[in-house]
Each structure stands twice: as structure tokens, then as C-alpha cells.
Amino acid sequence: MEQTVITDDGCRLWAVRVGQGDPVVFCHGGPGLWETLGEVAQMLSSVATVYRWDQRGCGRSERLGPYSMARSVADLDAVRRHFGLLRMTVLGHSWGAQLALQYALAYPERITRLIYVSGTGIDPESTWHSAYERNLRTRLGEGLERWQELKRRERTPREDREFAVLQWSVDFVDRTLALSHAEQMATPWLGVNFECNRVLNAETKRSLEGNTLTSVCRTLDVPTLIVDGSEDIRPRWAVDSLQDALPQVSRVTLQGAGHLPWTEDPHGFRSAVAGFLTTDV
């Protein structure tokens, strides 16, 4: 059931609902990408009503700025209001995990549970990003030269897609299937909003300088599940300080899985998340 959410400043957001059960609102990664968590929604549809949406400027939603974390949090709350949800679980993946965390910190009374999937934690980016860059280049393997060529020059829309597929392929451990998985993510191709990506990444980087989130996270009395893939090229130790700061937290690391752990360990991912959703709080 596709719907249009109208934000408080008139931006039109694409949203869709599936399943039955307590509400879970997804926050996709990026920033500047679109919602690609349909597989996860189907996994959880027997235990939850899942709400997916394209963030402002992304995919099927209107390309209307300005872009900021505060605006993204407000947009997420507009989704909640549109569907008449008093409280909800929020599941965020990758950059969306940071959005989900920020929403929970802003509105803990509106959150039942928080599910933090493949995020990068609350440490300054400088503490882990060089390791991520090394891992990315190593995993690209034979695709590294082409990726570097595309990265350093202006690209056509077709080359934007090629660049994205190469970069997304590193998020999968099985190299024989990685490009196929990345191609599926890029189909249909809805285009990257590079302005949104640049602005929100820069703001997120600034907000993490100085470790100011640690003390705030210690006050977040919301049951939280952190889910990682052990082979994610983003160092998993970057998330340790978030785990240490949260009062009610459990963590599941899926061995042999990458940045999209539900693709490479669907049984383990569903078991962890569905179990968390169906536990009394």
C-alpha cells in the first residue's frame, strides 16, 4: 500500500506499508540513496507492520531541500504522524542507523525499541575511516582501477550506476555473488542525490567530533539491538563505544556476513531481529 507523506514544510515523501503486528519504521542508508530494504520487510512481515519510506530528496520522494539531520528527524516524525503511530520501533541501516539513533534521542517517548543495523557508531570518523578505505580498496580487487577512474572524473548517469554497483559490491563477502547482489540493489536505478549525500555526511562528521554523544546515549532508556556482519568493511570496533553507552542494549554479530547481513545470513538476521521484536518490553 503506497502512500504519500506530506511533511510540515510540504515535501512529498514516498512510503509503503506491509505486514501485520506492532509497527516498525525503517530508515534506509545513504544518505542520498533510496529505500532498498524490501527483503527485510518481507522477512519481518509476519511479526510486524513495516513502514518503509524514501528520505527527502531520495528515490521516489520529492527532491526538496534543505538537507540536515534535524530535517531528517522531523521527516521521520512526519511518517509516524501520517500513519497514526503513537509509539514505534525504529530500524535503521548504515547511515539510517544514525538517523534512527538521533530520532530516539530526540523522542524517546515515541520509541518502543531501536534496532541499529551496520551503523558506524558514535566515535569520530577519523578513528575508523582510514581502515574502512583500506578495506574498500582491498575488497574491490580487480575492480579497483575502474572504480578509481570513475571516482575522479565527472560521470554520466550510466556511469553513476556503474560506480555505485562497484562500490556497493564491497559490502558483500562472497566475491562470486557480490556484483550480482549490488546489481539487484541498483535495480531499479533511482539516482543518487549527491548534494544530499555531501551535506548530511559533512554534518554527521562534525557532530561526532569530540565524542559528545556518549553522555547523551547514556540517558537513552530504550531497548536497543545492535546487529553487525562480522566482515563489514567498516570496522565493527567503531560501534563498541555506542554499545557501552546505551543502558539497555544487546548485540548480535553475524559471522561471515557483510554490510547487508540479511542477504548473507538471512536466517541469523531474521532470528535476531524477530526475536527482539517479539520480546516483551
Automatic annotation (TrEMBL):
This is Proline iminopeptidase. InterPro entries: AB_hydrolase_1 (IPR000073), AB_hydrolase_fold (IPR029058), AB_hydrolase_sf (IPR050266), Peptidase_S33 (IPR002410). SUPFAM superfamilies: alpha/beta-Hydrolases. Gene3D superfamilies: alpha/beta hydrolase. The keyword Hydrolase applies. Residues 23-261 form the AB hydrolase-1 domain. Its EC number is 3.4.11.5. The lineage of its organism: Bacteria, Bacillati, Actinomycetota, Actinomycetes, Streptosporangiales. Belongs to the peptidase S33 family. The keyword Glycosyltransferase does not apply. It is an enzyme of class 3 (hydrolase). GO terms for molecular function: aminopeptidase activity. Keywords: Aminopeptidase, Hydrolase, Protease. Coiled coil: none annotated.
